[in-house]
Amino acid sequence: MVFLTTLFNGLAYGFLLFIMAVGLSVTMGMMRFVNLAHVSLCMLGGYVMVTAMERFDIPFLATLPLAFLITGLFSIALERLVLRFFYGTDDLTQVLLSIGLVFMSISTIAYFFGPEYKPVSVPVWLTGQIDISGLTLERYRIFLVCVGVILTLLILFGVERTRFGAMVRACVDNPRVASGSGLNMQVIFAMTFAVGGGLAGLGGALSASLLGLDPNFPFRYLVYMLIVVSVGGMGTIVGTLIAALAIGVADVCTKYYFPAAGGSIIYIFTVAVMLWRPQGLMGRKLGHA
Amino acid sequence: MRETANLFFRLRVRWSAWEIIFWLAWAGAFFYPGINLALLGQVLIWGLFAMSLDLVLGYRGIPSLGHAAFFGIGAYTAGFLGKYGWTEPLSGLLAAGLVSGAVGLMTGRIVRGLYGVGLLMVTLGLNLLLYDFVDRSTKLTGGHDGLQDIVIAPVLGLFRFDMSGHTAYVYILIVTFILFFGVRALVNSAWGLSLIGARDNSRRMTMLGAPVAGDLTWAFGISAFVAGVAGALLTQTTQFASPEMMSFQRSADLLVVLVIGGTAMLYGGFFGALVYVVLRDQLAALNPIYWYFWIGLLLVLIVTFFRTGILPTASQFWIRLTAHQSKRNKLPGSTSL
Amino acid sequence: MNMPLAPDFVLKTRNLSMAFGGVKVFNNLDFELMRGDCHAIIGPNGAGKTTFVAIITGLLSPTGGEVLLDGQDVTRYSVKQRVAEGIVRTFQINTLFDSLTPMESVVIAICQRDKVAKPTFRAVKHLHSQIDEAYALLEKFGLADDAIVATQLLPYGKQRVLEVVLAYALRPRVLLLDEPAAGLSTSQGRALFEQVVTLAQGTTVLFIEHDMNLVFSYATRVSVFAGGTVIANGTPDEIRAHAGVRDAYLGT
Asked: Which of A240, B300, C94, C155 has the most Cβ atoms closer than 10 angstroms to its Cβ?
């Protein structure tokens, strides 16, 4: 029974990782742009939520769409003002640029909010545990899984069934052909960044009470973001989902059952997958660099 | 005319006045009254470490996000030797380099076919694995608190590592110079030229029949050796080794150091290290977390305006300037600093 | 020893087949390259010329048949092995070392050929014979004045020449030029071919070209690829007169 609880906790964590990382996967797959600053957007969402709740007394559930919106808007601004000038440059330049932005974001947040962990108060009806068919599960984690499933369905529906989703898929599959067939790449990029960034913010807001919120959030979770995206495969939503859930479950389970091994199992798994399939589990095989 | 060709290669490898001034300045600093030798020693170690990455990144074009692993392996090797009775520093240094170098050779073999994100993730992943292992193995490595009770005997039996830091500085400077000299010679050899060729166009190198994968493995091995010695230098002069020395943080900082100074120049690492260590020393006094803002901004600015780093951009500019001159005067222009 | 009466083939393919997935590019292709020839491969796009070259150089493995170099079966040899055996190619798009000078580029090529590029502390300046040979080569191909200018700063025409020099420096048994005159003006193209033909005497050259003037001026033998087979093979005059070729390809 403990195993099922641990598994469930892992799923909750996995959905969080998915929501936070899916935007990064799509933008990396679409624009071939390594944007490590994505993890700062997650942090931003968390702080938006906390500020909204503490300063403006906005109820918890209402802060979630707010975090999505504000982070989404911020992402567009970031993309238009800074990132788009670096499309097409080599991987290292993008890594360095985005690391620089991450550094700046950490300091900026620390300046305005202080370097300590921010306590996050979740509404009462989400605290504590509940008994479901013999399992004792935390309410917040149940909430996370529900939100995760709903968001996943929305995202998959959005990508498979809407026109915008079709345009996104076209741009990911073949940017040259997509642009040649008349799609306005600039607008699509900006919108994708907005949605992806918004999701990152939402994920950050959701994760705040579970993972803790402080200016060092990017340092702690950047690696997990990268692992989920590279193992899952850039540009694939299903791939990111599978990887995120797998990593989430693996991480929680190994920390519970093999605390001595720590994060090693995740890293070994990542290295193994990268060596076996460098394009990720469901990624598209890239041509020679 | 034929003489021009040979002259070109002679000039390419000749020690310029700037280089000589550079090294004399470091030597002279020793005698400058009141100078912070400990800080300068840190700069040299970072510079040596950055130079090791330069070999792989600048000259061979492979970005590695996990180079701190080699630094850490060297640091802990020297640490273990000092802790468990082998206190002789010079042999400890060599051992650290060799162990780290061996791991570097293995890494080179592993990352052979990789590129782009896959490569970054594997180098990062291996680094994190090592850090995690060392951080947790309290019984083996002292865990998060690091390795203590390291004893280092006097260098050559004569020069004790004392509080003043005099021995440490000279020790670091001499080792750094020797390794620099070696790497400089490597880079100026036909092998070094092949590395640059593989960086610019590995397809063409394969078409020339070059052992591209084998050369890469050796580049990693040599780079790891140098990084390992740098780590050992730090451990020996501070009598301490900690997991932080092989953290992702350090790998990222290293990348920043090298990029600020400039890649494929050998000296870029030292300039970057100077900027980094001095800035950190000055700004950390204020508040460590704000220091990240300025480093981040510096990185963004560099990437925007000096795409390849300050020194190479200046050097590229210089190439174009002298290219016109050399066409007119039939005098060789140099493509390296 | 008796002189062989049969023509001397340095490169041969026998029953060569290549298919991608279910798509057959060619089937049972027989091709012969005579020693010392300047042999042109022409044909419309999609005829399989690039695939053929990829198989000869080892980039692709054929689904059937053999590639023979001086009678030796090299079908399973890797790219590196084939270069060692003397099959060297140039590319349609410049594949050069942008930040290096022609001098450095050719020296690398020669050093790799002479196997003196292993990890060492010995500076390049000591490799006098390689440096002298490199310079002499650049002189012969008219690049001496630009020997120490970074490749990326050279005009396109000179870069194209350098592309050929890099391959030629390896003293190949078969020099494979993939559209060497691509992007060059008529006079530049002619100049390049003049150089190749005069200087590469003794080297067997196999080249792909679309410029018919160049083909008929400089080739000693022409093979026409169309629809995955060699539809004609012979001297330029024979090809010019070949009815099938005229229909398939030459037009006016």
From this structure: A240
